[in-house]
């Protein structure tokens, strides 16, 4: 990966190099005035994606599924393989982020990279990204609520969790996260810095206790153990489903892209934030995965438990330590949801700035006191609560709605990468780019997104019932159908992709800061 100076999009080869331009001048060159405060340093930008990926939250939430879909062999080696594939996606996205460092991120770059039908490419990418992020905020809050109730049940055995309580706790979590995002971006940056240390120190505590305290560990060869309890007789199919454990974890790294307009030296720090968050998550996640796998005492008991990682903690560490570590996990999930909501808000802000959402004038307004898009924050909160609400009557209904989260996000990731490939040598990279490796890395990234998206939409358990049915394809089809009807009904006449507010000198005069 290279960081040599190159020409920014929309500028001639004889123009000033982007590395000599300040962040505002880069933003003005893309047609936007500055509305948001630049308080994110390189570490802050990295922190938001690292927190959203959140290996503690992701692994603890999906570990049980992996035990039954491939077992240790897929959990460990699948983690390694899929992490590499995700790093290809992140590197390809980072190259695009360096060229177009805006809050609009994926949908903006899709509109700029498309040769034809710029509005349509931008429209579909934006709505896939929006729905995926809303689903992510709702799902993360729901997972946190589930683990909070698991902790309460351990502390007070008479407590019985219900779906109604889970929905109410989720709603409270999302509202508190909305309040935190309402205040200054400086507060969000501080909380994200804390979250990184919470994750790293929490990882050391969890791994350290699992290595030292249990009186039994599995043998070295246990990592090759294969288990297929998915109900499907084909072991290869069951193992491929197990790869989804890692894919579920590695979402949200576009957060660094969305925070570009609030990041110092965004053309370099945003792409670094994307790639570093994936790389560090891959390494730390592998360590955590190995610690959990080798601490399994009774495979059948753990695989059949309601919360397999919690059962591992109880078996190996005792109830007291299990409850303490569960608090670390809950904290990680809460930080994850907070960062996800922040990223979601910036996408709404930018999408509305270009007139792509109902009531756009409301959602891209910025508070003069905090310099944050407060109305966009509460739109994101409201939409997330709307997705959580069906869980009041049925967990299956909630799962059906948020199942589009990962598929929608990864498809949104793939679109600008695909368009960058199709543009070929006409693509003008930013100062962070892949050089001659850009094309092969992009090809691998797009192919992996297509393969993993198919896996996400295939049946994941047998026999297939109303409760076990995979609703992801139905949810995705519904999103695309609504977006298509809306596009042909009204949007195509008024939305033509990212807009420019004027020449650089004109938009500079519109700066609010």
Automatic annotation (TrEMBL):
UniProt keyword Oxidoreductase, yes or no: no
TM spans (from-to): 42-65, 77-100, 121-154, 166-189, 196-214, 234-257, 278-300, 320-341, 376-393, 399-419, 440-459, 471-489
Membrane topology note: Multi-pass membrane protein
Origin species: Streptomyces mangrovisoli
Top-level division of the source organism's lineage: Bacteria
UniProtKB keywords: Membrane, Transmembrane, Transmembrane helix, Transport
Positions of the UniProt region annotated as Disordered: 1-20
Pfam families: AA_permease_2 (PF13520)
Biological process annotations from GO: amino acid transport
Gene Ontology molecular function: any one: transmembrane transporter activity
PROSITE patterns: AMINO_ACID_PERMEASE_1 (PS00218)
Protein name: Amino acid permease
GO CC annotation terms, alphabetical: membrane
Subcellular compartments: Membrane
């Amino acid at each position: 990966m290279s960081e040599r100076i190159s020409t920014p999009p929309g500028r001639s080869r004889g123009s000033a190099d982007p590395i000599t331009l300040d962040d505002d001048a880069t933003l003005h060159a893309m047609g936007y005035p500055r509305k948001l405060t630049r308080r994110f340093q390189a570490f802050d930008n990295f922190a938001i994606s690292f927190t959203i990926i959140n290996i503690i939250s992701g692994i603890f939430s999906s570990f049980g599924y992996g035990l039954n879909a491939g077992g240790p062999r897929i959990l460990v080696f699948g983690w390694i393989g899929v992490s590499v594939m995700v790093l290809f996606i992140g590197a390809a996205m980072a190259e695009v982020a360096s060229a177009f460092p805006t809050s609009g991120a994926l949908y903006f770059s899709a509109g700029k990279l498309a040769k034809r039908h710029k509005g349509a490419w931008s429209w579909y990418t934006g709505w896939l990204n929006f729905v995926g992020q809303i689903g992510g905020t709702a799902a993360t809050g729901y997972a946190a609520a589930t683990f909070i109730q698991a902790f309460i049940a351990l502390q007070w055995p008479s407590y019985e969790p219900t779906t109604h309580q889970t929905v109410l706790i989720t709603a409270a979590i999302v509202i508190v996260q909305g309040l935190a995002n309402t205040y200054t971006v400086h507060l969000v940056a501080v909380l994200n810095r804390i979250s990184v240390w919470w994750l790293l120190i929490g990882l050391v505590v969890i791994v350290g206790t699992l290595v030292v305290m249990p009186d039994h560990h599995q043998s070295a060869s246990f990592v090759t153990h294969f288990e297929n309890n998915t109900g499907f007789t084909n072991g290869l199919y069951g193992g491929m489903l197990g790869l989804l454990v890692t894919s579920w974890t590695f979402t949200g790294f576009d957060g660094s892209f969305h925070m570009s307009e609030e990041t110092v030296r965004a053309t370099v720090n945003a792409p670094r934030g994307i790639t570093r968050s994936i790389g560090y998550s891959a390494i730390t996640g592998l360590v955590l995965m190995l610690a959990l796998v080798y601490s399994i005492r009774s495979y059948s008991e753990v695989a059949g438990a309601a919360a397999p990682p919690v059962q591992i903690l109880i078996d190996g560490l005792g109830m007291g330590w299990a409850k303490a570590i569960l608090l670390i996990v809950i904290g990680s999930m809460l930080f994850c949801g907070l960062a996800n909501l922040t990223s979601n808000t910036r996408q709404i802000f930018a999408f509305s700035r270009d007139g792509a959402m109902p009531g756009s004038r409301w959602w891209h307004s910025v508070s003069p006191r905090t310099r944050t898009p407060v109305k966009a924050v509460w739109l994101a909160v409201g939409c997330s609560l709307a997705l959580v609400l069906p869980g009041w009557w049925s967990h299956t209904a909630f799962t059906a709605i948020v199942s589009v989260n990962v598929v929608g996000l990864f498809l949104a990731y793939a679109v600008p990468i695909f368009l960058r490939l199709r543009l070929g040598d006409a693509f003008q990279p930013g100062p962070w780019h892949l050089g001659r490796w850009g094309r092969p890395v992009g090809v691998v990234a797009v192919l992996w997104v297509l393969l993993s998206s198919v896996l996400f939409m295939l049946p994941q358990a047998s026999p297939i019932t109303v409760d076990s049915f995979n609703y992801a394809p139905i949810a995705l089809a519904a999103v695309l159908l609504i977006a298509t009807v809306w596009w042909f009904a009204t949007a195509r006449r008024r939305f033509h992709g990212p807009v420019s507010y004027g020449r650089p000198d004109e938009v500079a005069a519109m700066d609010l800061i």
